[in-house]
């Protein structure tokens, strides 16, 4: 696809992570961890040529591009992000810059709306959910994937006790920082009930996770998060020594760690 002019709308939200700290690499790690799972779920929605889709928090644009291929030239995909510098538009893809909390969305328009790791980070998540439901066409499907921050058994094996301790200290500081920015670490588990309350039917949910060795995307994402937020995490007690040990542990092939458990929920708007 060729690059397209980006339409800027609304005020970008304050988000724990930014697109300025080696974000291209970080977004590609997220794609490597989650895209296969996301594509499988979206395939099950029945996505087909001619559909109109919205990709909220499109990140690197990998799922936007995948949906564009599925809907073909007669379909259309809108990619929405507060900082869409990594998304390529053109053809049947339109790129919009804006905040899903305030951006005007067309009513009863989209056959498929997808948001991954977005609503858990914003305090107005249930209001945004209602806005997304209103933007679904009759029979349209909403797909939300969120990470669960309540499980704490992500490290299966660390090569050293110091590595395990550094990993736990990092997670404690990170989850505290996310919460301070408005994230709800238990939101992922409540999405099915929230969808039903918002009026969706045929609500289904599943959990996805994968074990990663040091040096693989799941471990490198933990490291990327720590490096991007190192100043904020240091203010919460993570020491420079712990960060160095964490880096060595996340790169050590002997390490075995899970990335966060992904709860993916789908719901459908009634036909009429």
UniProtKB/TrEMBL annotation:
Record carries keyword Methyltransferase: yes
Coiled-coil parts of chain: none
Keywords in alphabetical order: Methyltransferase, Transferase
Pfam family of the protein (one): Methyltransf_23
Signal peptide extent: none
Cited InterPro entries: SAM-dependent_MTases_sf (IPR029063)
UniProt-listed GO biological process terms: methylation
GO MF annotation, one: methyltransferase activity
CDD domains on file: AdoMet_MTases
Protein name stated in the entry: Methyltransferase domain-containing protein
Organism in which the protein naturally occurs: Actinoplanes sichuanensis
């Amino acid at each position: 696809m060729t690059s397209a002019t980006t339409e800027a709308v609304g005020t970008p939200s304050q988000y724990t992570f930014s697109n300025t700290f080696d974000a291209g690499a970080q977004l590609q790690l997220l794609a490597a961890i989650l895209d296969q799972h996301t594509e499988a779920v979206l395939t099950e929605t029945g996505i087909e040529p001619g559909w109109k889709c919205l990709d909220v928090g499109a990140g690197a644009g990998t799922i936007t591009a995948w949906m564009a291929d599925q809907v073909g030239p007669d379909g259309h995909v809108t990619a929405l992000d507060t900082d869409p510098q990594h998304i390529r538009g053109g053809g049947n893809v339109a790129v919009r810059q804006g905040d899903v909390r305030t951006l005007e969305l067309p009513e009863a328009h989209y056959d498929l709306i997808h948001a991954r790791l977005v609503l858990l980070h914003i305090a107005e998540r249930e209001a945004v959910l209602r806005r997304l439901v209103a933007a679904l066409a009759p029979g349209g499907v909403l797909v939300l994937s969120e990470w669960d921050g309540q499980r704490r058994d992500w490290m299966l094996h660390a090569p050293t006790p110091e590595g395990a301790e550094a990993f736990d200290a990092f997670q404690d500081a990170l989850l505290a920082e996310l919460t301070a920015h408005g994230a709800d670490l238990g939101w992922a588990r409540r999405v099915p009930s929230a969808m039903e309350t918002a009026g969706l039917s045929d609500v289904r949910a599943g959990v996805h996770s994968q074990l990663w060795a040091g040096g693989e995307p799941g471990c490198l994402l933990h490291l990327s998060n720590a490096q991007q937020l190192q100043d904020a995490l240091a203010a919460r007690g993570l020491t420079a020594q712990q960060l160095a040990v964490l880096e060595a542990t996340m790169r050590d092939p002997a390490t075995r760690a899970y990335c966060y458990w992904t709860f993916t929920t789908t719901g459908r708007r009634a036909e009429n």
